[in-house]
Amino acid sequence: MIAVIRMMPKSLVWIFSKRYIAGKTLQEAVDYVKTLNAKGIYATIDVLGESVTNKEEAVAAKDEALSVLDAIVQNNLMANLSIKPTQMGLSIDEEFAYANVLELVEKAKKINNFVRIDMEDSPYTEKTIRLFTRLHEKYDCVGIVLQAYLKRTLNDVKELNKLGTNYRLCKGIYVEPASIAYKDKQEIRDNYLNALELMFKNNNYVGIATHDEYLINAAIKMIKELNVPKDKYEFQMLLGVREDLRDKINSNGNKIRIYVPFGKDWFAYSTRRLKENPEMLKSIIKNIFGIK
Ligand code: FDA
């Protein structure tokens, strides 16, 4: 299916992708975040882009991310920043990526904001944890993402709990081998809940990032049973996904944050979102072949 999307004209893929993206410009992202904030919903803004292969591109991406932090202050937004490590140069040189992300975290600290480091595919798991750990030694306004499909995750939680970590916990979206990743839906859910429990029991802040009602209900039950205070968690969802559920969680008095991506490099992100949405893929294919 993904191969099919890659062969399509980008203009067509854009029609189906734009529900997942605020727009191609920062102004469009700011405008979108304002509409969320008006409903009491928080945002995390992401400049689209990943797997950068030269240092100039990584520096440009870091500069764009700095502009996002400026825009958050100027517009008084209830929002923080999410970044992809390979966009900051992690696949080029760890030290170089560290310097880029450090600049972002230092800026976030100055303006009382926060940087979330997204987790990419498994060649970068160890490097991303190392990047986070070094930044966390200096600043507390930085957090990491862990993926419940990875078999290593419970061990990572045990290690990161020792530092006192601000987590986002998600299922994980990249294609990983069965030797390192759970493939069964229920196994991933079980690992998610085991990781969440470990995080809460050590008094960490957790962004519960999922649209899976099974996990959301189980998390709410766990929060009650463990008496987790409201300032130790939030729910997180992606722009354009399960807005009904988002509004329900929000109206029940839970803090919720939406991942708001924007930018010109929208293709790779959109492909991953479309992969999660078989109905949308069917529509695209019907549209191409003119099937009613
Ligand atoms: P699941 O895929 O089972 O979806 C549950 C239900 O949600 C589906 O049945 C469907 O109704 C709906 N749904 C989900 N995706 C949809 C879509 N694209 N379109 C339409 N409906 C959809 N991953 C990662 O590897 N690294 C990361 O850093 C992040 N960051 C991140 C941030 C935030 C805020 C979220 C919410 C998610 C991520 N992810 C991520 C993605 C995550 O790993 C996962 O792929 C998606 O959230 C989908 O998994 P669910 O838990 O929602 O379950």
Give an overview in words:
By secondary structure, this protein is of the alpha/beta class. It has one domain: TIM Barrel (Alpha-Beta Barrel). 51% of the residues lie in helices and 15% in strands. The protein contains 12 helices and 8 strands. Strands 1-2-3-4-5-6-7-8 form an 8-stranded parallel barrel, surrounded by 7 helices. Helix 4 runs parallel beside helix 5 (94-110) and helix 5 packs across helix 6 (125-138). The longest helix is centred in the N-terminal third of the chain and has 20 residues, at 55-74. The protein starts with a helix and ends with a helix. 40% of the residues are buried. The model has no long low-confidence stretch (mean pLDDT 93). The structure holds dihydroflavine-adenine dinucleotide. Dihydroflavine-adenine dinucleotide binds next to strand 4, strand 5 and strand 7.
Small molecules in complex: dihydroflavine-adenine dinucleotide
Instruction: Give the mean pLDDT.
Output: 93
Distance between the termini: 20 Å
Low-confidence stretches: none
Characterize the main sheet: 8 strands, parallel, barrel
Please state the CA-atom Rg, rounded to the nearest Å: 18 Å
| General form | globular
Helix content bin: 40-55%
Task: Name the features.
alpha/beta, TIM Barrel, eight-stranded parallel beta barrel, 8 strands, 51% helix, 15% strand, globular, binds dihydroflavine-adenine dinucleotide
Write the layout of secondary structure elements.
Layout: H1 2-7, H2 10-17, H3 26-38, E1 42-47, H4 55-74, E2 79-83, H5 94-110, E3 115-117, H6 125-138, E4 142-147, H7 153-161, E5 166-170, H8 185-201, E6 205-209, H9 213-226, E7 233-238, H10 243-251, E8 256-262, H11 267-275, H12 278-289
Parallel strand pairs: 1-2, 1-8, 2-3, 3-4, 4-5, 5-6, 6-7, 7-8
Helix pairs in contact: 2-11, 4-5, 5-6, 7-8, 8-9
Bound molecules: dihydroflavine-adenine dinucleotide.
Dihydroflavine-adenine dinucleotide (FDA) binds next to strand 4, strand 5 and strand 7.
